[in-house]
Amino acid sequence: MAIKKDKRLGGLDPEALNNMSDSSGSEGEKPRKTVNFVKGRMAGAGMAAVRKSKNVIEIDPFDVWVDTSGKYNRFQELLNKDTCGDLIQSIKEKGQQVPGMVRKNKGPNGEAYELVFGSRRLWSCRYVAENEKKDTKFVADVVDLTAKEMYAIRAIENDKRSNPSDLENAKYYLATLPDFDTKAEAAAAFEIEASKFSRMLALAEMFQEHPDLEKAFANPLEIKLAFGAKIRKWMEKADAKKRLLSAAKELAESGGKEAQKVMNTFKVAYEGENSEPRVK
């Protein structure tokens, strides 16, 4: 009977992944069922079951690094004591209840581990360690993953626990695209239709080319894929594009506005009712 491949892992054979080594791949190490373990946790495995894994360890939270080059589908700059308040309180009272995941990969400052997923948990552990309990550790499962496998598993976990915003995903797809051989391979790894994947890439490319468009929004998490399609259409004509980018710059300099106000301002700029739209 043919083994069914998992599209979320770029078409990789789950059975092949089950035979990945625990860390270095040296002789004598027992194979680790990485993918089944991750899926079991997402299916509702309890904390007691998770802790039975010999690969779940306690780590100094400052010995874990997070890729900030765009290859992580959470905006790390938005993590603070307010956005992580619930986790901070929980960790202070009961400790970290759900492990994160890391792989052994030396960081830019000598860290031993790279975060696969669990950035809110890691940030919260660091906060508690700095401000409350100095001996607070980050509980994580240590696995051996290639970059492609890490990107796919990261997408699975974050989609299951709390969906990243359209812009977070779009930037993540664009940043990780060079690590895949083709767009089709990348789309398969993230289990997204080719047409939608192309639109997501276009969204990220547009905001990368015109930073003021993103800065016009006070909260980048409010930026939807549909907004990108409208903005691209509105900028098809050179004169409308000039007016819209001028409006975006003004909004950005004001600190940004809520999403609907931004889109209304962009629409006015597109229609040419005001060549220099005013921020209200």
Task: Based on the model shown, name its key terms.
280 residues, alpha/beta, five-stranded mixed beta sheet, 48% helix, disordered N terminus
Structural summary, described in words:
This protein has 280 residues and is an alpha/beta fold. The protein contains 13 helices and five strands. The protein has a five-stranded mixed β-sheet. A hairpin with an 8-residue loop joins β3 (100-104) and β4. α4 (85-94) packs across α5 (119-131), α7 crosses α9 (194-209) and α12 (238-253) runs antiparallel to α13. It starts with 13 loop residues before the first helix and ends in a 9-residue tail after the last helix.
Quick structural summary:
Helix content is 48%, strand content 8%.
Beta-strand percentage range: 5-15%
Mean model confidence by pLDDT: 78
Main β sheet profile: 5 strands, mixed
Sheet with most strands: strand arrangement: 1-5-3-4-2
Count of DSSP H/I helices: 13
- Give me the strand/helix succession: HHHEEHEEHEHHHHHHHH
Rough shape?
Answer: globular
How many DSSP E strands? 5
Distance between the amino and carboxyl termini = 65 Å
Structural class: alpha/beta
Oligomer: single chain
Given as residue ranges, the uncertain stretches (5+ residues, pLDDT < 50) are: 1-35, 44-51, 274-280
- The rounded Rg comes to 21 Å
Helix content: 40-55%
